[in-house]
Amino acid sequence: MPSALRYRPRFFRFVLFGFMAMAVGVLAVLSVEARREMRLFQEDPVDNIHWNLTQLELDLVLLLSAAELALQQEEPPLDKLRKRYDLFYSRIEMVRSGAMFERLDLEATIRALTARLDGFLQRTTPLIDGSDASLRAALPALVEDVQALRLDMRSMLIRAVAQYATESDQHRGELARLLRQIAATSAALLTLLVALLTSVLYLNRQAERKTDEALRMSSRLRATVATALDGVIVAGLDGRVLDFNEAAERIFGFSRDEAIGQVLERLIIPARHVAGHNAGMAQMRDTGRKKVVDAGRIQITAKRKSGEEFPVEMSITSDSGPDGMIFIAFLRDISEPVANERALLAARDKALAAEQAKTDFLAVMSHEMRTPLNGVIAALEIVGRKAIDPSQAKFVRLAQSSAKQLLRHVNDVLDISKVEAGHLALSESTFELAPLLTSLADVLRPLAAQKATEIELEIGPDLPLVRGDSFRLGQIVQNLLSNAVKFTDGGKVVLKAIVQPEGAGMAVLDLSVTDSGIGIAPEDLERIFEDFVMLDPSYGRTDAGTGLGLAISRRLAEAMGGRIGAESEIGKGSRFWLRLPMQTAEQAAPAPAEPARAVVQDSTDTPALDLLVVEDNATNRVVMEEMLRLLGHRATLATDGGEGVTEARAHRYDAILMDISMPVMDGMTATGLIRAEGLSKDSWIVAVTAHTMPEELAKFRGAGMDDCLTKPMSIRDLARTLATITANRLSPPPAAPAPAPAPAVLDAGRIEELRQALGAEGMQRTVAQFLRNTDATMDRLRSAAPSPAEAQALCHELAGVAAMVGAAQLHRHFAGLEARLRTGDASAIAAAQADTDRLWAEAAAALGDLAEA
User: The pTM is what?
Assistant: First the structure.
């Protein structure tokens, strides 16, 4: 029988006896109070105040009669008068000494009466006790005094009797109240006792029924445990098995008879887990703490009779048994699910690896394709600049068009790989929407005119200045417009854009491109945004493409927090829409009169420069050399990074065009070594690369490069970069060889960018934090403890933070040290210690002055 059912009748009997004892106590208290009140009423006749006060008044009347009678006689006998006075005097003493007045709270009233009587006695007693002659002489005054006393005493007696009557009524009311409480309490207690007796009888019947039900449930539970699919093992606090169901027999291989009485550690616990199991059982016995009991489902390793170990899922609960605490464990063999899970994880990892391999392959192939494309496009541009006949020029233009189309496809694939790899970085700038959208439409107007299609713009008035990634927005709009033009013949394409304010500093760009083209079937409206989907994939399709434009547009829109979609009807045209949240910006402040860093937009009129080209691809070397020759510059060629370092150390070049991916030594390592020492350590270094990931471009700058040219590049791109170098870095060449001009300690352009972004106070805080942190890092670098690997990491860290705050000279120094350490030059730190301290002191002083200013 369950313990709760076993002890419930006993509990109710205890409650019943408690209520009975309390009832007896309440009745006893009320009975004592009632007896006290009744005793007061019983004592009143013995010392009845009404009778005594009436007798006192009667004695006074008789004394007055005797005094008046004696006054009427000439020689009256005075013995009778004296006798009446003595009786009156005795009555006064009786009234004065009686305790009834105190008991009935009449003491205050009687005190006034006795005070009046005392005054009378004090005046009269000497006359009564004196001679007859003096008494006869005082009879008139005595009669008057007694009459006055009678009137006063009469009034006082009336008040005393009235107060006594009131007190008596109160006592009778109190007695009646007590008797009513006794009756009510007795009735309530009798009712309660009857209710309790009824409840006890009912609960006893309920307990009997629950006991029978518990017995039936216990029987069913034993049957359930015996037939359960999960193993059930019951053990005591000593770890010995008390029960072992059939499922446990199947799981572990022991029969029930074999298992009962055995300790778990010898039965199902693997040898390597026995110590932990015993420690847990000991903790439960000593402290009562149960680590895994009632902790839900856990997964452990168990052991079969054969010694085979296998995974089980287990949950444990506890209960009280006849001999103390018991533990019930429910176990399930999960060997098959675990094996399936491992297979799924392996398949997932394999799929992820395949996806990553695909992404890496696309990225590598895009890079490898851009490198030869650079040679093709540049070579065609060089040929196109030479005097050739019209038929040759026609084929050159065709080749250039095909190369540019191939470049667009490569760029699309590269964008997909960026998004898939999570490397898509969005830039942020302030720009105007109307000029951007107008320029995108203008670019496609010639193509639309070839198809007799008109492009119209419906741009809302007063479009605000916005902040965002104008390049990626332009990429989306260009894809939508080019698709609309591609599938519309002799119709119209409408680009519509409005900006709706949405909260402080925010707005939503609602943009749509509507065409009157062939339309799209409803079932294809979602498919067109998937990778490589072309609605006409046949060999005979009339419109070229890779099927990536819309897929890239959707990814870009989602990356910028927006949405893109389409609506269409076959034969009537399509409408593609874009909703994009954007920040609104105030009107940009006028640019400084003298910018810290000039950027030349388009110029080929630059002084002749002495340039070093480091490029492993023979085609690209030839093409770049020819491009530079056409622009009027001198070029020295190096076939790999090592050769480039040797050339740069031996000769001062105005600028170095450095490829990144090269055998023997890559471009970043070569840049670091060039920055460390040599005649060209302060020259402008430009990365010429097909790597276009934002983090890769940042890495190139962190290695000490000043600018980047992305392959494939045109003569215009190369000329613009060289013009920028001339505007920012070079002075007129000296008449005779002279030491290279000392580089600026700080990058004025970077300092100005920080000042505008952070403000004066933010700039001061940033510089102060840089000086504190860098000083601590320098101390670590100066110590003898850092290993070469740690020293290289510290140099990398110092180069990065120096570039961040605009300490250009310090950045180049540490980038060079990092490059030397990467090549195994363990003495680089010690050899450059003096330069390190000097450059750090110069940078700290310059930044300190800047912060104060």
Answer: 0.39
